[in-house]
Amino acid sequence: MSPFCITWTELTNGSNMRLIHNMSSIAEYSPVESSVPNRVIKMAVIGGSGVGKTALVVRFLTRRFIGDYERNAGNLYSREVQVDAEQVTIQVQDTPGVEMTDNGINLPDHVTCSIKWADAVVLVYSVTDRRSFDLIEQLHQQVVLTGGANMPPVILLANKADLLHLRQVDAQQGPMLAETLGCSFYEVSASEDYSQVHKAFHRLCCQLAKQPAPASNSTSAATEKRRSPLIPRPKSPNMQDLKRRFKQALSAKVRTVTSV
């Protein structure tokens, strides 16, 4: 097992008990009493509309797959984890879909703000949507321009790998593009394979965890930056609503099987 082991932590409502999944077991965990705030690792997920960004984020953080989502409004998802015995808070910023226009890409302000905010960027396209693949190079250029000398690490995810009959992007094209951009590449299926989704985000978390924690003055500056009116506070989703929709999806599947 990698020395940078990530342990997933979820606080149950109305209880101090936390459930942990460390890739091999589920056990009861006693919360650590500490006045020192957790280190925060921030990731932004960016890509075209309908490529499965929200499904990937929820799959990574909860192991669950929900196939039907409302239009992406730019939610912030957060979970506490342990990386190499250090308690860390992972924040993943989902972003609205980027559209291609005759004049180039239509990049919402929220996406630009998310790039400035993030410690790392995950670029996503769907293998069933050629236009989403064609967006990637321009999105990467935006990350370079926005990040400047402090450009965040980037990984490239090709989603919906299970939909072979709908594939519009050849399997070789993703790795070739990633090599050109100088970033890691993963072809995944949010609906069919949790392990590959976890692997991609896990390696990015480990890469960020190896970097020195920001100094206190840098943390203060970052806090002020996040409070700036130019960078709106990301919205936090209602996790109970996510669980409700997950149960509804399961019920629909059960009804379908029963009818057959």
UniProtKB/TrEMBL annotation:
Reactions that this protein is recorded to catalyse: GTP + H2O = GDP + phosphate + H(+)
Region (Disordered): 214-243
Family matches, as SMART domains: RAB, RAS, RHO
GO molecular function, one term: G protein activity
Record's keyword terms, sorted: GTP-binding, Hydrolase, Nucleotide-binding
EC number: 3.6.5.2
PROSITE patterns: RAB, RAS
Xref: InterPro entries: P-loop_NTPase, Ras-related_GTPase, Small_GTP-bd, Small_GTPase
Entry's family note: Belongs to the small GTPase superfamily. Ras family.
Protein name: small monomeric GTPase
Lineage: Eukaryota, Metazoa, Chordata, Craniata, Vertebrata
